[in-house]
Amino acid sequence: MKKSVLFLILAALASACVSSKKFKALEAQQKNCSEELEKTKQINQDNELTLMALKSKLEELQNEAISLKTDTSNLGISRRTLSNELSKSLKELDEITRTFEKYKSTGAKEASVLQKQLEQKNIELQKKSEALVILEAELKLKQKLLEEREQRVNELEELLKRQEDALNTLKKKVIDALIGFENQGLKVEQKNGKIYVSMEAKLLFKSGSIVVEAEGKSALLQIGKALENETDLEIVVEGHTDTDKLSSTSIPRNNWELSVLRATSVVEILLANSKMNAARIIAAGRSEYQPVDPADKSKNRRIEIIISPNLDELFDIISND
């Protein structure tokens, strides 16, 4: 009898020890997930700011190009007007010169008047010639600036288009990989320069479980294969729950733990069955605090895989401008 009691006590102590270790490991894992999530949130914010800055820069350059086109057009008109005036003045000078030569030999009174007109016309021509040189130099500078702005606008537009096209291609790749899982609470969206793959919990988990079911695993395998060769991506796997309180003495004990552990289970499957870079993927829990539909709890219980492109090239462009 004493041996049985002793055995029960030892078993209870061993169980408590294992639970304590598991609890501490979970706490450490949750802390790590929270830290990684904060880093990723900062990266996402930086990426969004970079995109906004690039679009703002593009708009600024487009406005500058429009202004330069207007200036160039006005300078072109002024140049043509001045050139016509100069040509007209040259003809007048030629006419005065011929008349002056005609009267000069006879010493006529008109010769003195013509001499003054000739001198005045020469001064006028000199000023117009100098003004034309300045105007042509300004026009040349404006044309050069316009060419540079238009080239920069084209570069930025092309870069943004390439990024948008790459996102569209990646979105199609993910959608194609998930053919066969339609109408199972799965949605792929593109917004804010990122791709969101939302999977309702019913596709992946039984109620309160952190173990991925076979059909959900099959969908995750397809996603992993679609993404494994994409090297310039940051991927966050977020677990979300509904507002129903989970209260348990065993793990998971609450919605925070449930969301973190479900996200971790998804990440483990993605990494174990593909060549995805573990340094590029993060597991995070959001608990119940980011519902997509307060009126439909089933939609709030979900896993979101958020795929963000690497925007280093765009950031370098903004930094170097």
Please, could you describe this protein's structure?
The protein has helices spanning 2-104, 109-177, 201-204, 214-227, 255-272, 297-300, 312-320, and strands spanning 186-191, 194-200, 233-240, 281-285, 302-309. With 321 residues, the protein is α+β, with helices and mostly antiparallel strands. The protein has two domains: 33-53 and 170-320, 2-Layer Sandwich (60s Ribosomal Protein L30, Chain: A); 60-166, Helix Hairpins. Mean pLDDT is 79; it is low at 5-18.
Short synopsis of the structure:
The protein is α+β, with helices and mostly antiparallel strands and 321 residues long.
Topology:
Elements: H1 2-104, H2 109-177, E1 186-191, E2 194-200, H3 201-204, H4 214-227, E3 233-240, H5 255-272, E4 281-285, H6 297-300, E5 302-309, H7 312-320
Ends apart, CA distance between termini: 83 Å
Instruction: Describe the largest sheet.
Output: 5 strands, mixed
CATH class of the largest domain: Alpha Beta
Query: What global shape is seen?
Result: rod-shaped
- Rg: 38 Å
CATH superfamily of the largest domain: OmpA-like domain
Name the helix and strand elements from N-terminus to C-terminus, one letter apiece. HHEEHHEHEHEH
Count all strands and give the number: 5
CATH topology of the largest domain: 60s Ribosomal Protein L30, Chain: A
State the strand order across the main sheet: 1-2-5-3-4
Helix content: 55-70%
Percent of residues in β-strands: 5-15%
Mean pLDDT: 79
Secondary structure class reads alpha+beta
**Count of all domains:** 2
Low-confidence stretches: 5-18
Helices, by number, come to 7
